[in-house]
Amino acid sequence: MLNTVPADRVTHSDLANAVRVLAMDAVEQAKSGHPGLPMGAADIATVLFTKFLKYDAADPKWPDRDRFILSAGHGSMLLYALLHLTGVKGMTIEELKNFRKLDSKTPGHPENFMTPGVETTTGPLGQGIATAVGFALAERMLNAEYGDDLVDHYTYVLASDGDLMEGISQEAIALAGHLKLNRMIVLWDDNEISIDGPLSISDSVDQVKRFQACGWNAFRIDGHDPKAIQRAISKAQKSDKPTLIACKTTIGYGAPKKAGTSKAHGEPLGAEELAGAKATYGWSHEPFVIPENIQAAWAKAGKKSRRVRKAWEDRLKALPQDKRAEFERRAKGERPAALADAVAKLKDRLIAEPQNVATRKASEIALEVITEAVPELVLGSADLTPSNNTKTKNLTAISPGNYAGRYIHYGIREHGMAAAMNGIALHGGYVPAGATFLVFTDYARPAMRIAALAGIPAVYVMTHDSIGLGEDGPTHQPVEHLAALRSMPKMRVFRPADAVETAEAWQMALERTDGPTTLALTRQNLPQVRKEGDAKNLSATGAYELSPANGKARATIFASGSEVEIALAAQKLLAEKNFEARVVSVPSLDLFLAQPEKVRHEIIGDAPIKVAVEAAVRFGWDSVIGPDGIFVGMHGFGASAPYKDLYKHFGITPEAVAEKVLRTHNL
Ligand SMILES: Cc1ncc(C[n+]2csc(CCOP(=O)(O)OP(=O)(O)O)c2C)c(N)n1
Asked: Is 158 in the pocket of ligand 1 (CB under 6 A)?
């Protein structure tokens, strides 16, 4: 037995030092990692976890837990040490010893899909704090629906200098301040050090003033004084605004030479500094060994909200059966059966009364019924609501202090929107869908990438999807974006051709629970190309034969979205010349390429000439048409003109397609 002092006599320093040494030992063993942040921020985290955090290590997914988000993901060992010490199942000391090893639960940066107790993937600085805005907003929105008895928790963030320097932090804090998300509390590890050295070489922002200007309650404390930290968090909890607590700390706290320098940031301390730091703490135990009394005190902290959790479970059980089942369904992220019925009925209606509309309008038509069937669907837009057609008549917008609603005006903050959507989805209870122009996915992409990596089912409604937007010109006309998004692992991209495919794409997007979906939609009107009813979701394989050849096909024309109309017209022109072609609609190229070989071969067919038509760059289409296939699309940036002129100018016309097919045939 290492120590027989009872758990209650363990001091704050003992608890914080346990976190520090575990982080130091793990980084040392891995021969890589970031010891400085855990050593510096251990006091803050210890006060939070032992005195405030509503958290039960036995059920890290309990819906009404407080959320803790380590925005500075490089300090991952801080979080892993806390999860281990509080007793999260599976977070054994072996996992800490395997820090940064393949298949461990302790990857270099926190990944919510690998480690129990990790709320979100962080690492790209700024993402955590921006994702936290979504967590805090979802908490308030769900509270507005279900009341304090079921939803009543805080969102805590530990952020570093880098988090606050990143541009996305401005979008995030402005949105949180505007919406008065007073349950969001950011603890800033204000250590004035980054990789290149003291922060003063690159930054002179007064963060407290910046946050205050954004509608936050913000003040400074000594981040190594547990009483001050405790007072600050208590004060923050009572604020009517979100709070920034600037905690002045020393990076690598306790290391004799490296403390307070960038040398403590991102490399193992080395034997001498490690021993020196442990001596500073008065820590004489072997690596990875925590005295039993300290372990017991941490385990107690891990259980401190157990009674609160049980009382919450009792309240949930006491609800009427249907209300409880609905809460549980949404918390689990299961979709309602009504979704498929709603889409099937809509498709029947569209077949009976075809709609020649832009697919952004078709999306609105779909949303009118889908929002009724899927109460957890929360829509929003980065200031382009009238252009994106995302606000259906039945949706009301939330506003500061009033969170009863299902529409979010994110402001002109594409990146902040996408990150907040991640938080809304990860919080549970909601499926977020957010909109802007397809070209501005560039502005949202880092958060979209987190969604893909972390398996977050968010939906991006990206309108104005090609040169078809016309006069706004090349700055607004995406050409490489479809290829870029399709190349992102686990991102699914739909570019529907008409109202029926748009309904099918929405169904696919919402039935998906393991990753994000982008819907690329047109500004310009399109004819409805699906005229015959089919109960099956034909878009589910990513591509399908829309219009067969009248006999044996000598060419197959593949097209997506607005170019399907062009493919069909080209098929007609060719038929007039007794040349038989078939048309394959490709609403999702990436989904199609992921089909089993047999399915792909069947749909691609054996016609000797293959053509792809898409008003975007060729990249990706060779997988379908081969390197010798004909591509009719964009070869550079677009131009500013009415869209019909642009299609002619860039040669994306039925005549051009037919002419190229015949020329190839006659070679
Ligand atoms: C978007 C992004 N850019 C760059 C990095 C690489 N990086 C990791 S930590 C770091 C410096 C962070 O300094 P700070 O936030 O002050 O953390 P501390 O030194 O206090 O640990 C950088 C540039 C990153 N993780 N994310």
From this structure: no
